[in-house]
Amino acid sequence: MRYLLTERFGFPNDCVLILTDEERNPCRQPTKDNIRMAMHWLVQGCSYGVKLHAIVDACHSATVLDLPYQCTVSKQTGRWRWRDERPMTGACKGTSGGQAVLISGSSNGKSNMSVLPEPYATIGAMTHSFIRAVECEPRTTYGRLLTSMRAIMRDSGGNCNLQGPIGGSIRKVANFSGVEEPQLSSAYKFDIEREPFCM
């Protein structure tokens, strides 16, 4: 993901903060407090009108940002549709002015964890499908991105086909969270077939 952000989207290295289980520094491990700290670090100094993209490859990931609208594939029509996730109580969900977009996965509740010996790296199915979709078509719409991710998840079968430095050390795709379908959550509804995906 760091390579994708810095090499494909041009973000400076010091604008990328990574939290991993392998990190010895306790402040760089993905605990709840550290993830919250990282989110505060990410938005520090931002003012309204900014756009936050979150790509989350974890169990129950759709609720991570608690956004009011969710776009999923309709089982009846096979088309993407928005669902209003605002609570009936009227409690506020969303942002205080900026646009937030979450790309996550719909899970079957079962995980498929693979443990591989070093030096093999494992990548989650959501992350893999997102990177492959962006690599194949850097200029796309949100709808086409989700459709590509969906096709990659269904067809990849655990094999990693990433090229260049991104795929060099990765040997296995693991569906850690049982993800079956990509989904998009947002602070606002928009036309996903026309809105360009832009980071």
UniProtKB/TrEMBL annotation:
Organism whose genome encodes this protein: Triticum turgidum subsp. durum
An individual GO BP term: proteolysis
Protein family according to the UniProt entry: Belongs to the peptidase C14B family.
Signal peptide: none
InterPro entries: Metacaspase
GO molecular function: cysteine-type endopeptidase activity
Record protein name field: Metacaspase
Lineage top rank: taxon: Eukaryota
GO cellular component: cytoplasm
